[in-house]
């Protein structure tokens, strides 16, 4: 995952903007919210490190993905990186399917998924970016391709505004789905 400063709250966003301004003025950047300067940098560490050398955020992804997918044996691993983006998280995702899935089949499935917008024209340099996802409701998917290391694998890129999608909107959309499907 590539997590924006917004993942650390308003103070994280404010600190990133302040760091850029301070650096533009030739000043030392303020570093309070993050372990290091985030402006012009990446920090491969979100939350605290645990005994297994994964961070609490990485283990949260491990457990929550299994829970959301209703698959306690699902193989999941991640590295969570704080990036110098004010708002909207991104993910580089690799999945292994039970059988080979064509790009066309995957694109059709993704294109019909509610709340997901496919932007996948790499030759035209059209793909999701956090700058475009910030302040919007859907999650954007692109860079969809076969995994060259695994015949049953796919890889793709996602961007979404976790403040909008990950918080209240997601709960509302789940409730709407449950009502519509009488769950």
- Strand order across the largest sheet: 3-6-5-4
CATH fold field value of the domain at 87-183:
Dihydrodipicolinate Reductase, domain 2
Please give the number of β-strands. Answer: 6
- Main β sheet profile: 4 strands, mixed
Mean pLDDT: 93
> Low-confidence stretches at least 5 residues in length (pLDDT < 50)?
none
- Helix percent reads 25-40%
Order of helices and strands: EHHEEHEHEEH
If helices are DSSP runs of H or I spanning 4 or more residues, what is the number of helices?
A: 5
CATH superfamily of the domain at 87-183: Dihydrodipicolinate Reductase, domain 2
Silhouette: globular
Tell me the fraction of residues in β-strands, as a range. Answer: 15-25%
Can you describe what's shown?
This protein is of the alpha/beta class and 183 residues long. The protein has a domain at 87-183: Dihydrodipicolinate Reductase, domain 2, CATH 3.30.360.10. Helix content is 31%, strand content 17%. The chain contains 5 helices and 6 strands; from the N terminus they run βααββαβαββα. It has helices at residues 10-24, 56-68, 103-111, 130-133, 165-180, and strands spanning 2-3, 81-82, 89-96, 116-118, 139-146, 153-160. The strands form 2 sheets. Strands 3-6-5-4 form a 4-stranded mixed beta sheet, with helices on one face. A two-stranded parallel sheet has the order 1-2. The chain is globular, with a radius of gyration of 18 Å. The two termini are 31 Å apart. The relative contact order is 0.14. The model has no long low-confidence stretch (mean pLDDT 93).
């Amino acid at each position: 995952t590539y997590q924006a400063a917004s993942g650390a709250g308003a103070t994280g966003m404010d600190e990133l903007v302040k760091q850029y301004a301070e650096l533009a003025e030739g000043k030392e950047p303020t570093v309070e919210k993050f372990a290091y300067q985030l402006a012009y940098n990446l920090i491969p560490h979100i939350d605290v490190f645990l005994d297994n050398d994964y961070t609490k955020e990485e283990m949260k992804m491990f457990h929550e993905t299994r829970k959301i997918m209703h698959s306690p044996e699902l193989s999941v691993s991640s590295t969570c990186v704080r990036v110098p983006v004010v708002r909207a998280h991104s993910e580089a995702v690799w999945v292994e399917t039970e059988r080979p899935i064509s790009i066309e089949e995957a694109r059709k499935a993704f294109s019909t998924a509610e709340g997901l917008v496919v932007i996948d024209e790499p030759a035209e340099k059209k793909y999701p970016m956090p700058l475009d996802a910030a302040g919007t409701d859907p999650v954007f998917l692109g860079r969809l391709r076969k995994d060259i290391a695994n015949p049953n694998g796919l890889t793709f890129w996602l961007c979404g505004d976790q403040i909008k999608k990950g918080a209240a909107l997601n709960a509302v959309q789940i409730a709407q789905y449950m009502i519509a499907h009488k769950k």
